[in-house]
Design a protein that fits this description.
The protein has helices at residues 15-28, 44-56, 78-87, 103-111, 123-127, 130-139, 156-164, 180-184, 192-195, 200-227; strands at 2-6, 34-38, 62-65, 92-96, 114-119, 143-147, 170-171. The protein is of the alpha/beta class. The chain has a single domain, classed as 3-Layer(aba) Sandwich (Rossmann fold), CATH 3.40.50.300. Strands 3-2-4-1-5-6-7 form a seven-stranded parallel sheet, with helices on both faces. Helix 1 crosses helix 10. The protein binds adenosine-5'-triphosphate and magnesium ion (MG).
């Protein structure tokens, strides 16, 4: 089972939007069964899954509430959730986190094979990445950055990627452009790939960025294989 955590201590960076889209994309690309773990008490991913069940009668990707109420206060750990998911033959877990430096986020980082930090292209977004990078350094989790809410046809996206270089993380060559379709598709519990097959640009951003994430995980596995001989 592979675990990918989507982490950003900056609110509104795009964690939930990308968690949901990547989860659907991972299913489409054959990485499933996929589970989304929603550790944010805000519960946006879980509410999306409810709309998905009601409107589309779809149970996939399965979405699990794992916030303070359901887990930590009841002395159930994230590791317990992982064991249960392994038992259900889940292949890919995507953890959508909350914008705080708190134990559940650190745990999500610790459990991840790979963490992704979504980051906007503005200097304010880039400068705010520090706490997320510190969490990932403390857990030793391999990580990459995806520039999101990028401006269409603007050199600011590449400039942002250049500035992000200073954090020493992998940077996704695909930028997720700010598009209404990425918001609107979620209303009915869909992802943009399922919503308007004609909106190829948004779909391409999601597909290509997920291909990059999958490639990063493959690369890490190769490295581990080489190290263990
Ligand atoms: N690429 C994008 N294009 C258009 N809108 C986007 C994009 N990414 C995020 N948004 C919008 O930005 C807002 C914040 O996104 P989202 O809720 O995914 O961020 P978040 O990091 O999960 O926030 P929080 O920190 O509150 O959990 C939402 O209104 C969402 O629809
Ligand atoms: Mg969120």
């Amino acid at each position: 089972m592979i675990v990918v955590s989507i982490l950003s201590q900056k609110g509104g960076a795009g964690k939930t939007t990308l968690s949901l889209h990547w989860a659907v994309e991972a299913e489409r690309q054959g990485f499933g069964p996929v589970a989304i773990i929603d550790i944010d008490p805000q519960g946006s991913a879980r509410k999306w899954a409810e709309r998905r069940r009601e409107n589309l009668k779809l149970e996939t990707p399965i979405t699990i509430k794992a916030d303070e109420d359901t887990l930590w206060r009841n002395d159930v750990s994230m590791s317990d959730v992982m064991v249960a998911l392994e038992g259900e033959k889940i292949n890919m877990v995507i953890i959508d986190t909350m914008p705080r430096v708190e134990a559940p986020c650190v745990e999500a980082a610790r459990l991840a094979d790979f963490a992704v930090i979504p980051c906007g292209p503005s200097i304010l977004d880039i400068e705010a990445m520090g706490p997320s990078v510190e969490i990932l350094e403390s857990t030793g989790t391999p990580a990459g950055v995806v520039v999101t809410q990028a401006r269409p046809n603007s050199s600011i996206n590449a400039a942002a990627a250049g500035k992000l270089d200073s954090y020493g993380l992998q940077i996704c060559p695909t930028h997720i452009v700010r598009r209404a379709a990425l918001m609107d598709s979620l209303i009915d519990g869909k992802a943009v790939q399922e919503w308007r097959p004609s909106d190829k640009a948004a779909e391409r951003d999601i597909t290509n960025s997920w291909v990059w994430i999958a490639y990063q995980m493959e690369r890490l596995k190769d490295e581990q294989r080489r190290q263990t001989g």
